[in-house]
Amino acid sequence: MVSIENTAEPAAWFKLERNVLRAGGRWTIAESARLDQQLQGLEARGSQALTIDGSRIEKLDSTGAWLLLRTARTLEAAGHHIASLDVPERYSALIKKLDRDDQPEPEHKHRGPRMSPGVYRLYRIGKATVKASQQGWRMLGYLGRVTVETGEMIAAPRRNLRLAAMMNQVEETGISALPIVGLLAFLIGVVLAYQGADQLKKFGAEIFTINLLGVGVLREIGGLITAIIVAGRSGSAFTAHLGTMRVNQEIDAMQTMGLDTVDTLVLPRVIGLVISLPILTFFADIMALIGGAAMCYFDLGINIPAFLRQLNEAVNVNTLMVGLIKAPVFAFVISLVGCYEGFQVERNAASVGLLTTRSVVESVFLVIVLDAAFSVMFSVLGI
């Protein structure tokens, strides 16, 4: 018999009597260093079955539970059979949870049936379709949750609105993006005016380059290009930030503290981007028109007053509003996808990069699909 106990019983103790390892006291992190040192020297003779009796444990935290499980596995590795590990009923769930989390995941080696190349391609298409459908269904459920949280925030803004976090997101997604959005929009305006003028010169209708530029930029190009830039810049940042928080177990800590992750992490990003993207779109429209005006001046000799008169005849307020109305919808989709994929990150660095890429691809795809749907709807309504 091997026994480790003092005359004055310590806060946490254990002793080995024949085939029973008894444990009692307070198995907590405060006692873990001493218990760990003593358990390292525990030796059980023979190869009989052992029972770990922790019924006299008064208090048990995750550190103490891990020490019990490690001791059981050490004894098993030494050739003993652990018949049972008993603890008070209130700590059974903790032991089961740690035991389950510490077990390595089994490797599933699945060999599908042999297929011809044509059938295998069809199989892969079907598998990708099912996977995409499941992804869409889960994202739709997440959209419902975010919508409910948004409604609660609107109903009680003083209690649920995180103004500081929201303003921080407006600054990061809006103000900080002005230089890159303005530069790209200016260059797109130059290219669009140049290519339009190059074709319209053949018919002597160079002046209608301004019509092409105004309608194209205000209705479609400005909002679409801005949304794509924001998807690549801010949507990916949402996924990477939340994904890194998952890898570092910060989100788990927030949930343990009772914080609502949607209210704390998602809504400020969604509302911030919904506010900033229409502003960015309007800024991009202005910069694209400035770029087109500069191109018309140097290439076609159209001065600024003439450019503005023709632009006034070609567009009106409705043309501008058609492009701006789409911006909040694009912003909602981009932020929703970015946050959703961030929460799907697994606990490894490779998953962060993979899901960040997927977030950008999905956001750009959905933005283009929505833009096409808006175009069809506006055409049917005659707007």
Task: Provide an overview of this structure.
The protein is of the alpha/beta class. It has 2 domains: 91 residues, 2-Layer Sandwich (Transcription Regulator spoIIAA), CATH 3.30.750.24; 228 residues, no CATH class. Helices cover 70% and strands 8% of the residues. The protein contains 13 helices and 4 strands. The chain has a 4-stranded mixed β-sheet with strand order 1-2-3-4, covered by helices on one side. Helix 6 runs parallel beside helix 10 and helix 12 runs antiparallel to helix 13. The chain is elongated, with a radius of gyration of 32 Å. The N terminus is likely disordered.
Topology, pairings included?
Blueprint: E1 12-17, E2 20-27, H1 32-40, E3 49-60, H2 62-77, E4 81-86, H3 92-102, H4 117-155, H5 157-160, H6 163-173, H7 178-200, H8 209-247, H9 250-256, H10 261-300, H11 304-314, H12 317-343, H13 349-381
Parallel strand pairs: 2-3, 3-4
Antiparallel strand pairs: 1-2
Structure described in brief:
This protein is an alpha/beta fold and 383 residues long. It has helices spanning 32-40, 62-77, 92-102, 117-155, 157-160, 163-173, 178-200, 209-247, 250-256, 261-300, 304-314, 317-343, 349-381, and strands spanning 12-17, 20-27, 49-60, 81-86. The protein contains 13 helices and 4 strands.
